[in-house]
Amino acid sequence: MSYPTFSFELFPPRTPEAAAKLPNVIGQLAAVRPDYFSVTHGAGGSEQDGTYDTLMTVAEHSGVEVAPHLTCVGSTRMKVAAQLERYRDAGVKRIVALRGDLPATAMSASAPGEFHYASELVNFIRETHGDWFMIEVAAYPEVHPQASSSDADFEHFRRKVEAGADGALTQLFYNADAYFYFAERCDKAGIDIPIVPGIMPITSYSNTLRFCNGCGADLPRWVRMRLEDLQYDKQALVDFGLNAVSRLCETLLRGGAPGLHIYTINQAEPALRLWERVGSMATA
Ligand SMILES: Cc1cc2nc3c(=O)[nH]c(=O)nc-3n(C[C@H](O)[C@H](O)[C@H](O)COP(=O)(O)OP(=O)(O)OC[C@H]3O[C@@H](n4cnc5c(N)ncnc54)[C@H](O)[C@@H]3O)c2cc1C
Prior knowledge:
With about 280 residues, the chain is α/β, with parallel strands linked by helices. It has helices at about 15-30, 50-60, 75-90, 120-130, 150-165, 175-190, 205-215, 220-230, 235-255, 270-280; strands spanning about 5-10, 35-40, 65-70, 95-100, 135-140, 165-170, 195-200, 260-265.
């Protein structure tokens, strides 16, 4: 795979109506020729079949490469082995390997089940399938919310790379300096896999707050205040969000980020409007 890469993330639709709309969304996104689509996977298995079915829908409606997310929280070696076999049989060559979100009652960062951390899943994939899969892992420029410290989180990221990750996709963030600092830290530590920024378009005040709170991302005060002002003027908010996120992407790409991974939330329009602004830079 050559870099920069750009990719779109989808999730398995949760209702028959959403499933009926998905082929059209995929078709619109595929028209701008992303390098691949990734499809999320419910931790604990809630969306396992949904992930596979969505991958098949993408393959059928786009011909673009697909990358399932695979979470290991609460799972077993046998179950993960069966999922990997199924993906391999379907011709999948790229996996996003994750621990997955812990149940709300969890008391530590260690997941229940036979895998405790994503590094163990990466090890398992390499042990059982060698280099068949290209493995992406998650990276946290603003530090994973359950990490005991920034240093500890960085060491855990390094473990995933040493276990055999080929690349990383970041958690969403709105602060380019956090990304550049993380990239610099990797560089100094001799970690040379591509770290592709995960980008969430802004189209709503409440959703943006919820996403940021959910994953510990810092929403700059000036952005939050402006979104609050504009929350009842949808068009103005969408325009402001597009400008802010386009500027973030331009800064990242100009500063050497090796592509963009766009969280679409299964909506074509915000991702495509962003792509119109920055696509030529991401594929240059
Ligand atoms: C690009 C991307 C895609 C995602 N897709 C999904 C998805 O499809 N489904 C889903 O459920 N979630 C998804 N998530 C969310 C992700 O599952 C959560 O952020 C989860 O809490 C951590 O997953 P991880 O793979 O980063 O875990 P890990 O890398 O295992 O890290 C989890 C925590 O444990 C700590 N840790 C790691 N190793 C050790 C160790 N050996 N000892 C002590 N502590 C350790 C880390 O510092 C961190 O705090 C995604 C996140 C990103 C960034």
